[in-house]
Amino acid sequence: MTDALPLWSQPPLWLHLSDDEFEETYRAGDRRGYLHRVLVRALSHAVERIPTEEELRRKPLTVEFAPPLPSKLSFYMYEATQHASERQQGTFKVQLTGGVRRSSASNRLFFDRSAKARVILAGYHPELRLFIIWDADLHELAGGFPYSKNVQAPPEVASEALARGLAHTSRRLKRPSVTERIVAARPRHLDRALQLRIQLSVQTLLEENL
Fold first, then answer.
1. How many domains does the chain have?
2. What are phi and psi of 157, to 5 degrees?
3. First to last CA, the chain
4. For residue range 90-144, what is the model confidence (pLDDT) as tens digits?
5. Which helix (H) or strand (E) holds 49?
6. How many whole angstroms separate alpha carbon 209 and alpha carbon 207?
7. Most buried of the four, 26, 34, 137, 208, by CB within 10 Å?
8. Residue 28 and residue 26: Cα distance in Å, rounded?
9. Where are the beta strands (DSSP E) in 51-192?
10. What are phi and psi of 166, to 5 degrees?
11. pLDDT digits over 175-197, tens only?
12. Rounded distance, CA 209 to CA 203, Å?
């Protein structure tokens, strides 16, 4: 496998394009590569090594970071959408179409943790240029998750993040019956959002005695 490029070694053109140029060039192309590039662009100041083109097409995308972020994180990135048909109008959602099976007897999926890195489950809304980050650990607790499972976030957390840059909220899950904390952030606040996401995930594990 080709090693990822150090940040200082001939960074790719897409890393330094203006937002409008980047969107015009990459949004209509490979969806996974586009979302992963958006992620790396937002965190470029903290990235230790730029993923290769091959790695940008993989799910999850594992990225190496400098402190205070963890040394590496594995990202399941999806495009966040809004649908008028949702029970709460304006609700944001992603559909979990990636994961691995742990048994041939079950079709339920789990996040791939083979990179030995914390998994981050995130959605990105291109029009709003907003990240939404769910608690990946909670969505595996009920024996994994089905293919194309909907994961949702209320519109209020997005509105607050758009106004303030960073926001979080809570919602009660049915299966498992736990309270999930959801984080939303504009790209320039994504590093803070990831730190908050990790802090809230640990807090949930302790409070729910999981």
1. 1
2. -70, -35
3. 37
4. 899 999 999 999 888 889 999 999 999 999 999 999 999 999 999 999 999 888 9
5. strand 49-50
6. 5
7. 34
8. 6
9. 61-64, 72-79, 81-82, 92-96, 100-101, 109-110, 118-125, 130-134, 149-153, 166-172, 179-185
10. -150, 135
11. 778 999 999 999 999 999 999 99
12. 10
Helix (H) or strand (E) holding 5: strand 5-6
What single letter denotes the amino acid at residue 133?
Answer: I
Amino acid letter, residue 196 = L
User: What are the tokens at 69?
Assistant: 């972020």
Paired tokens of 186: 């504009």
d(CA 67, CA 173): 32
User: What are 80's two structure tokens?
Assistant: 């966040």
Amino acid at 176: P
List the strands of the sheet with 179-185, edge to edge.
Answer: 61-64, 72-79, 118-125, 130-134, 179-185, 166-172
163: which residues sit within 8 A by CB, 6+ positions away? none
